[in-house]
Design a protein that fits this description.
It is a single chain. The chain is of the alpha/beta class and 290 residues long. It has helices at residues 20-32, 52-66, 81-93, 111-123, 135-138, 144-153, 167-176, 190-195, 210-221, 225-241, 249-257, 274-286; strands at residues 4-8, 13-14, 17-18, 37-39, 71-75, 98-102, 129-133, 157-162, 181-184, 200-203. Strand 4 (37-39), helix 2 and strand 5 (71-75) form a beta-alpha-beta unit.
Length: 290
């Protein structure tokens, strides 16, 4: 159901408010460069700093701006089950193609708690659900057995964004649930994940290089693995540079340097350290991006 490259959208800010003009231009650029879909209000979109009203406004704006030209998978997760249900229902109401639901953060639920949380959300809607597993951010890992049970019991849980960094875990997920869409949560692991049966990537780098990231996945899916691998290694330094500091600081800084938007971040995200910005500039210059 979800195949290709889906951009984990940044949220442009201007004078403390959502910069919808820049966001619209970013989405238009995504469409023009062959991206399959966008994911607003995820980690890269600084969702924890958004008010309810802002969160909903961004999701609705993205659906209208996409105009059917790409899929919209809205970030609707929360560490509160009721809040996640609220946002997921809103995503369904405004016409999203799916919802990305991150595992609860800070409260560290058990596997039973994770199962009940995701099942309650899935049962509240009909749109497809993409589980988001990123223990490095949430401190809890969704075990493959839990994903298996959720996929078996909830027809609309159709995919998992895997950012555990463990190909062993991802392989086990596909072993238990071969029908699930396995989506890489890391640009640098997109190609390896495709090789074990993954369907694509939710990408940070494609905010600024949508055409290039799309080409890697497209070539692999068309069977030209050699060229896809060559492009993977060519752009690998940029993939790593996007995480020289906590995401989305580097990609938002890059977007600002490329004139896509202002680089404003909301606390607790803050401006890059000078030495890291110097390193980022060095990488960007090596690709003639600035």
């Amino acid at each position: 159901m979800f195949s290709g490259v889906f951009t984990a959208l940044i949220t442009p800010f201007k004078e403390g408010k959502i910069d919808f003009e820049s966001l619209g231009e970013i989405i238009e650029n995504q469409i023009a460069n062959g991206i399959n879909g966008v994911v607003p209000c995820g980690t890269t979109g600084e969702s924890p700093t958004l008010s309810y009203e802002e969160h909903e406004a961004i999701i609705e704006f993205c659906v209208k701006q996409a105009k059917g030209g790409l899929k919209v998978i809205a970030g609707t997760g929360s560490n509160s089950t009721d809040e996640a249900i609220h946002f997921t229902n809103f995503a369904q109401k405004v016409g999203c193609d799916g919802a990305l639901v991150v595992s609860p953060y800070y409260n560290k639920p058990t596997q039973k708690g994770l199962y009940l949380h995701f099942k309650a959300i899935a049962d509240s809607v009909k749109i497809p659900i993409v589980l988001y597993n990123i223990a490095g951010r949430t401190s809890v890992n969704i075990q493959p057995e839990t994903i298996h049970k959720l996929a078996k019991d909830c027809n609309n849980i159709v995919a998992v964004k895997e950012a555990s960094g463990s190909l062993n875990q991802m392989s086990f997920i596909k072993h238990l649930v071969p029908e699930i869409d396995l989506i890489s949560g890391d640009d640098a692991l997109a190609l390896p994940v495709l090789s074990i049966g993954g369907t694509g990537v939710i990408s940070v780098l494609s905010n600024v290089l949508p055409k290039e990231v799309s080409e890697i996945v497209r070539l692999f899916q068309q069977g030209d693995i050699k060229t896809a691998r060559e492009l993977h290694y060519e752009f690998f330094p940029l993939m790593k540079a996007m995480f020289i500091e906590t995401n989305p600081i580097p990609v938002k800084t890059t977007a600002a340097l490329l004139g896509m938007c202002k680089g404003d971040l909301r606390l607790p995200m803050c401006e890059m350290k000078d030495e890291n910005k110097t390193e980022l500039l060095k990488v960007l210059k090596s690709f003639n991006l600035i």
